[in-house]
């Protein structure tokens, strides 16, 4: 297959993959609150189904793809099954039914994030150079989904789930046309051995502190993912889902700034800047309004680029450089488990409980958002302060900046 056509095919796969997630998850809290009238605690639990899926399913599906089932066929099965589950969830109105079906859906969907990556890598000559241009179409898919849902003004309905279900069915059929990616019959390290080796990566102080900070910062992070759309709608912001795509646009822009700031700030202060952006974002949400201080709401949305790129992307670079060559994949997987899995799972409970606590009595499901966001800001600030106090400085034994040495090795030019 022609290289250009192959990249287009893989990019289309990424577009559909993230369009599905962006279509239903961003507005989930608004539908659950205004459409189904669920409590804040229940909304947090449903939002946390993605975290459960991230913790449980990827290992087992990855094992199937490694040893027995062609990746494109496994992707097709998971997405077609997911389409049926999403559509079914859109027809339910009771909390237990919605929670159970979406939990089953996330057990199907979350493994596909890694499977689409592995399929793309298998068909690239130089993944390090080629993957970025393919993966960026996934972010574009998320943006298009948000713009579509916001423009149609369907955020408080089950229609976004049905749009996602239709796209999931299309994705499943499309996967059957992707290049053949058969299982390689690889044998994995036994689970106990893999776990021991992965945990061994955390023995150095820098890695241990980073892992703990990653886990803890994802607890207040879930406030943003689970409740921002509901907050903006209750505050009176029009086309909230469309406006939230500004976060993904800023993510693309901040990605270009990482090499510059990595050289200037180093790992410690890059990670700190990402966490500090969380504090500022929640303060902006706490004190912003859709009238005279609408700029604060925009600032909170656009801060997503710094929040995500400066912490998560920098963290991935940090792990890649700190972990031994043989354990890099294990280390990345462990951090993903701690963040997207355990951290956001805990965050779903905490955010739901906090939102439930600040429910306005006799208001028909309205919440006191200022103390909710101040709680999130305080939680992020505590993690930031602890990280600054405990994480070692980026200096080697000669006193030279570690980040400067790494930047020189990576060929990042001086400014």
Structure, explained:
It is globular and about 60 Å long. It is built from 17 helices and no strands. Helix 5 packs antiparallel against helix 6, helix 5 packs antiparallel against helix 8 and helix 12 crosses helix 13. Helix content is 79%, strand content 0%. With 415 residues, it is mostly helical.
CATH architecture of the largest domain: Up-down Bundle
Unreliable segments of 5+ consecutive residues: 396-404, 406-415
User: What is the number of beta strands?
Assistant: 0
How big a fraction of the residues is strand? Answer: under 5%
User: Rounded to an integer, what's the Rg over CA atoms?
Assistant: 21 Å
Q: Helix and strand succession?
A: HHHHHHHHHHHHHHHHH
Short key terms for the protein model shown above:
415 residues; Growth Hormone, Chain: A; 2 domains; 0% strand; 17 helices; disordered C terminus; globular; mainly alpha; single chain
Structure in a nutshell:
By secondary structure, this protein is mainly alpha-helical.
Topology:
Blueprint: H1 3-25, H2 28-35, H3 40-47, H4 49-67, H5 71-90, H6 95-122, H7 127-152, H8 159-175, H9 191-200, H10 205-235, H11 240-244, H12 246-287, H13 294-302, H14 304-322, H15 328-357, H16 369-390, H17 402-410
